[in-house]
Design brief:
The protein has 424 residues and is α/β, with parallel strands linked by helices. It has two domains: 119 residues, 3-Layer(aba) Sandwich (Rossmann fold); 248 residues, 3-Layer(aba) Sandwich (Rossmann fold), CATH 3.40.50.300. The protein contains 17 helices and 13 strands. An eight-stranded mixed sheet has the order 8-9-7-10-6-11-12-13, with helices on both faces. Strand 3, helix 3 and strand 4 form a beta-alpha-beta unit. The protein is elongated and about 75 Å long. This is Pilus assembly protein CpaE. Keywords: ATP-binding, Nucleotide-binding. GO terms for molecular function: ATP binding; ATP hydrolysis activity. InterPro entries: CheY-like_superfamily (IPR011006), P-loop_NTPase (IPR027417), ParA/MinD_ATPase (IPR050625). It comes from Pelagerythrobacter marensis.
Length: 424
């Protein structure tokens, strides 16, 4: 945590301030295992921590209980005022909320553990904290490598978002020679590993089940290598096993990817976008895959509106996929009028090339280097590579456009259908 300088003195390796004896009873044996003094485990929670550290040097690793805090984020700021730079802070609490978890991490907290505590949970978190403290510090933050995170979202099922995801990841890793992570978040039916002719492994399901275990070593062991620069994390979870997660694992994975890779590509199903909107917090570019149909026009409008409201920081690239000139349900002009923006790229329909890629067990662009569709995908990759770390902000307010709604209504009227303007 960043804090004002104060004389360092002799710093203890560890200290904890807990609100209840039950938590202390679980913590003390783990502290003994780590070789630290149990006397450094005190009662009193965050308030006592602030009072104690205002008159004494802060430890290397600090564990603090937020259970009695009415405003954890504000109180953490008070803690930062008395913590010395370099202190690794682990927070304990009983509020199971993804937004709070994300905000605490953004404030400088290393980890957030939920009560009731377990010895294994504490041990893992303390080992990770110790590794962070022991790691060499970057001397100049301006030399930190650039990282671009791209989420690929399909407006409808079958528009080819997964084909785009795997092709972009392959191009980043080969043509651009950039270390790339591919995260397939279709946990039950994802095709990322299949497209690369790989077994998905258990990495993603293990991460979802045990978010506290996610660190650099976990990433190295769990991800499956597709080539020297590309690694994939995916799953093929049993369809009788519902997805049970608060999304904290995905936040942790994105953080580790930023440290280990230069590019991240997330194959992000629409339902995951709805359920875990915080996944876009650190995303730079959203590639929105669509097709020239009435349903896709409607959902392109809805998702673009959602992005303006909930992720205004991202650059959005709209890609029309599987386009057959003269055989589309909606003309390009009508489609662009309905979504109130030009299509950034158009990828032609090429069934023969898609079948060839599937037979070879390769990504579309790898199997079909000279096809027109692959040329269009390379242009999409070039656009993403050129994206700045901070996406351009849209000057227009995020609101429903009357013009776009009227254009969509006009298309619907041509087909003899009645529908209300999208309310998203």
């Amino acid at each position: 945590m960043n804090a004002p300088w104060k004389p360092s003195g002799n710093r203890d390796p560890f200290a904890a301030f807990m609100c209840d004896e039950a938590a202390l009873d679980v913590l003390r044996p783990v502290v003994v295992e780590m070789g630290w003094q149990t006397e450094k485990c005190a009662r009193g929670g965050l308030r006592n921590a602030v009072q104690s550290l205002s008159v004494a040097a802060s430890p290397n690793i600090l564990m603090v209980d937020l259970s009695e805090s009415g405003d954890p984020l504000n109180d953490i700021n008070a803690l930062a005022e008395v913590c010395e730079p370099g202190t690794v802070v682990i927070a304990i609490g009983q509020v199971n909320d993804v937004r709070l978890y994300r905000d605490l991490l953004a404030s400088g907290i290393h980890d957030y553990l939920l009560k009731p505590l377990s010895a294994g949970q504490l041990r893992d978190s303390l080992n990770q904290a110790q590794a962070v403290f022991a790691a060499p510090r970057t001397s100049d933050p301006t030399t930190a490598k650039r990282h671009i995170s791209t989420a690929v979202v399909g407006t409808r099922g079958g528009v080819g978002a997964s084909t785009l995801s795997t092709s972009l990841a392959w191009l980043f890793s080969t043509d651009h020679d950039l270390p790339t992570a591919l995260l397939d978040l279709d946990v039950h039916f994802g095709t990322g590993a299949l497209a690369l002719d790989l077994e998905p492994g258990r990495g993603l399901t293990d991460a979802i089940d045990n978010p506290s275990r996610i660190d650099g070593l976990f990433i190295e062991r769990a991800m499956i290598r597709a080539n020297d620069n590309l690694a994939i994390l995916s799953a093929e979870a049993p369809i009788n096993a519902p997805l049970m997660t608060d999304g904290s694992a995905f936040v942790q994975l994105e953080e580790e990817f930023r440290q280990a890779f230069e590019m991240t590509v997330i194959d992000l199903p629409r339902n995951m976008l709805i359920n875990f909107p915080h996944l876009l917090a650190e995303v730079n570019v959203v590639v929105l895959a669509t097709e020239m149909t009435l349903a896709s026009a409607r959902d392109t409008i809805r998702i673009l509106s959602w992005l303006k409201t909930n992720a205004a920081h991202v650059q959005t690239v709209v890609v029309a996929n599987k386009v057959q000139p003269g055989a589309t349900e909606i003309s390009k002009a009508d489609f662009e009028a309905s979504i109130e923006r030009a299509l950034d790229f158009t990828v032609p329909f090429d069934l023969k090339s898609a079948a060839n890629a599937a037979k070879l067990g390769q990504t579309f662009v790898e199997a079909n280097r000279s096809s027109k569709a692959s040329a269009a995908l390379r242009q999409v990759a070039d656009r993403v590579i050129g994206a700045s770390d901070e996406a351009e902000m849209d000057d227009e307010p995020a609101k429903k456009s009357l013009l776009g709604s009227l254009a969509l209504k006009s298309l619907l009227a041509k087909k003899g259908k009645k529908v209300a303007a999208p309310a998203d």
